[in-house]
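Sequence in, structure out.
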Amino acid sequence: MKRLVHAISAALFALACVGYAHAQSPRPGQPAPDFRLQDQDGNWHELKDYRGKWVALYFYPKDNTPGCTTQACEFRDNIFAFREANAVILGVSVDDVESHRKFAEEHGLPFRILADADKATARSYGVLKKFLGVTELAKRDTFLIDPEGRIARHYRDVNPQGHSEIVLADIKKLQKKST
């Protein structure tokens, strides 16, 4: 039954991805918009907490849907490589803290998933989108933020499968370029 619900959710998202983000996304070289969001444990996080590190800030539509689960699990599976590259992974959706807690526990996610329940962060990154014509969710976009807090890369409408490897490879390329 759970798989059927996931399949139906994925199909509805695929068919109904109509609508546009409400604000323009920050471009590479621009400062990344700050945020203050709670993670799956109820702890608060701000972008400035991660200065000096690379940040893979990935937005996704909904906890426990097939694509979002694939994406989260691939980031999970590459966590040690990200840490070795002095990078942190932060997932963001408009789900609440409790939903994130369950999602993180179910899939053993070793990184922070941030609850953007008021949708302000998704809006400031230009990734808030209407699905099914009524529900506002985050698009599947990722922002790679450099250690100084600037946007290094923006990945739009990403394919969840293999995305973690692409982000990691880009971090390594950018680190080589800056040395």
